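Entry type: protein chain
Record version: 2
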Amino acid sequence: MSAKAERLHLRVDEQQKALLEAASQASGESVSTFVLKAATEAAADVLADRRVFVLDEDAWRVFDEALQEPAQDVAGLRELLTGPTVLDPPAGGASR
């Protein structure tokens, strides 16, 4: 593991601190090690949910067949994605 040069500061309330201290003590780790390990695992889980999914054989076959179908236009989607959004400046050029 590489040397750690970055810091991450957290503010917690009294109950959160007590919970983290108790859990880190129960696991035999420092609070910093416990929090870093738990946060890193949670971050990996969040990202994995967006990159990896598992299907059984039947579901995979259905999914694969759907991927083979030609793309279709979805009514209104092109307009939705190319039209102005609430983040665009209002018509007429005046900004708030």
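Comment: The longest helix spans residues 31-51.
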